[in-house]
Design a protein that fits this description.
Layout: H1 3-7, H2 13-48, H3 55-68, H4 73-87, H5 89-109, H6 113-116, H7 119-135, H8 138-149, H9 155-183, H10 186-191, H11 196-212, H12 219-226, H13 234-241, H14 243-275, H15 279-307, H16 309-322, H17 326-332, H18 336-354, H19 358-363, H20 371-387, H21 390-400, H22 406-426, H23 437-440
Helix pairs in contact: 2-3, 2-5, 2-7, 2-8, 2-9, 2-11, 4-5, 4-7, 4-20, 5-7, 5-8, 5-11, 8-9, 8-20, 9-15, 14-15, 14-18, 14-20, 14-21, 14-22, 15-16, 15-18, 16-18, 16-22, 17-18
Length: 453
Amino acid sequence: MSVQQTASAPKDPAVLRRAIAAGFTGTVIEWYDFVIFGTVSVLVFSKVFYPEQTPFIALLSSLGTFAIGFVARPLGGIFFGYLGDRIGRRNTLMVTLALMGAATVLIGLLPGYATIGAAAPALLIFLRLVQGFSLGGEFGGVATLLIEHAPKNRRGAVGGWAQAGGFVGPLLGTAVILFLRSVLSDAELISWGWRVPFLLSVLLIAVAAYIRTNITESPEFERARAHNELSKHPLRSVIVEYPKEIFCVFAMHAGNALLFYTGLTFAVAYITRNVGLSQSVALWSNVVFLLAATVSCILVSRLSDRTGRKPIYLAGTILGMLMAFPLFYMLDTANVGVVLLAAAIMGAIEGGFLYGIQPSYFGELFPTKFRYLGMSLGYQAATVLVGATAPMIGVILTEAGSGHTWAFSLYVMAILAVAAIAVLLAGETMHRDIERIDDQRNDPMLTEPRRAT
């Protein structure tokens, strides 16, 4: 295929639809697998894998096991980012999907502490690390693949579909867990029912793998490869040439990751442990959070193709700061309707104003030769340092405050303030030509691409 033919591929609606389907379904599976671990860790793992500990220490151990998966995410981001920028996005994403699927199924088959003793939590931690390593390569690959397939005036909308998968996956997992809780007793759930969500992922992975095998490589990557524009040392080059952009991705995603894991993981522990509501109510709040995030993600990402990325992301950081204290006031009412409303508000802010436009915003900061790796570095570092630790920091600060959350709310506001500063540093990117980022990156207020002379 000629370079000209390859470059025209995104104009074919069928090619673009397949790319969107591959990005969406793959992200659904990756996040289904990764987040059901977080939910189950709060509800069950303290009893299955850490039964010898006190309830508080067992909860912290379970949340620590959840967080430890994030340790491998930067390594996965570097490894798969390097691979994707050297050999292509499509095949790299097939590997990430296979790894995540294998680790998740094995978790579903893993014996508990009562059967194999200390080996059980050790193996659980190892498989969690494999999950994290796989997921470390997912965002950068899917985001890059989609925006490089998308027409310039639809990069926000197309990228938003991949991010929507990041909410639909956990939504499916939460729905499965809610169903199991409705038909199983607590004893049955702890004995064997918790394994079902992990084992069901086999069916979803088969569908995603089939779709991913039928997509084409990114036309922009093919163009860059044909013109010998790929970097031989993408890791070294991106760190030396694009440190500001890596920091901007890190700081902007830090605010998003904090809100995501606060709303989806810490809130479950807080609602059940501090507020006194049932686990079912906590899970339903997750459903509402994810539904609001999905709808907001699709709508606001489309809007960003008209208004630009910068004003929307900046609005998201400000709205998140404004909700840092009211969120817990609403949860503390113990009124189910108010709790669900709080979940909807946080989901809409995090899903649409932050997460939804990340593929287009972050992707427009880096050139093709290390777009996959550049996005992955900042994104995964923020996820590890801020997102993964959010539930544990929330529990510790709340415990230190005798059940009050004011210290954690201040922490949320501080992280989001740094994210807002990063948005101002990144500037607007909507009109950039992704083939010519090197030429246009020093003009953050660019409103029209420069014309070749």
